[in-house]
Predict the structure.
Amino acid sequence: MTHTTGIKNSGTKAGGRRHHWRRDLVELAALFTAVAVADSIANMIVHGPEGPVLLIASAVALAATAGFHTWWARRHSHAPPPPTTSDTAGPASTARTADHAPAPAPAADEVRETSLWRMRTTVQDEPGSLAALCTVLARLHVDILTLQTHPLGDSTVDELLLRSPAGLQARDLSREVAAIGARDTWLERADAHDLVDAPTRVLGLATRTALDAAELPLALRQLLGRCTIHSLPATTLTGRPTGQSTPVEGVLEGTVMRLGDPSGGSITVERPYLPFTPTEFARARALVELDARLGPRVPRSQDVLTLPEGNTITVRRAGPDDIEAALAMHERCSERTLNLRYHGPVGDADRYLNHLLSPRYGRTLAVQTASGRLVALGHLLWDGDETEVALLVEDDWQRRGIGSMLLSRLVSMAEEADCGSVYAVTQASNTGMVAAMRGLELPLDYQIEEGTLVVTARLSAQQAPVQLPVPLHEATPYGQQADRN
């Protein structure tokens, strides 16, 4: 419309140049006529017998006219605007209505429900590729809230946070994006937390990591999206090298990155449905370097509770500094208690403590008496995509509700970490652990194999990412993996 109007205006001006001399003659004639009329009136007023009277009368008439015009304007400026219709209202009436009346409420069909999506797609690194992607999204009435680009040689990975109409399906969105040549399109549902921009999110994850060493695996998972993280120690429980060594600068291999663990060993991050970008690798490595510089650290907050019989206990986070107290508790536990907890020879129980109390592999809660003696441990262990809970309560302190209290707190910590489920491995004869899991009042799944019982509690329904590789007819079932943080 703008270009068409401009062409018409320029054409009008071009066509009028042939008649400029006529307008000049008319204007010159009007000027001479006005001068002659003004001279005649002046001579009549100055030299006429009633010149002063005529001059005063003219002044009074002009003042009366101005006063009447002012009164009329003030009276009608406070009146409501006349009703207009869409057929008769022009630009002037539209502007007046906007100034003196509230904006009309949107019609019911204009109020649409929307959904948030996180989308990643790969396009060619050439002029116009991003514009084509934005054009497709605009045609589908999809709003781009945030956009990040990751150049990769001859292609670019675009990460977008989108707000789309609720009725728009993921497959339809992916198909439209594929039409412009985009590939490796990946979609998953987003929520309000994803509205935070990338620098703010990274700073928040760095703060969490600085306060608690156990947050590093969770921070990496939230930073990189849905992925599997394994912390592999440098030595086995018997002290033999595992061969898991990683260069200080780390290794990036497509969908797998390996980072050196500050406590020894390596951290492996896998994301089978989408390769990592150099930017993601640099951010992950920065978090690991921050963790290495700060060294071991465990929050020192604690809660003091009173048991039904009146004894006071303290619940706090435990770490490597509690190994000696945990070994002393092992000495006081019966063989049956240790066997139910560790599912193997009692002599191997002590070897697990370095692993269990390391913040790299999870979080541990300790219960100690008023005298400072350790009487119970509760572990929340990161196991790749899954999360394990385990309890050990000293014989003399069993059946007092300590195990149920610890399990409830561990599950709350798992929910805060966005875990979809937790599982406990025990023996079918361990009625105390089974009762504690039932006491959570959560949906439970049971699996029994050769006397070993695995009880899984589902905390929340985690939606798997919608992986829609492009083109669709070449798709592989990447999206079948559900993240169980």
Summary: Residues 1-17, 78-111, 461-485 have pLDDT under 50 and may be disordered. Residues 211-294 form one domain. The first strand starts at residue 114 and ends at 124. The chain is about 40% helix and 25% strand.
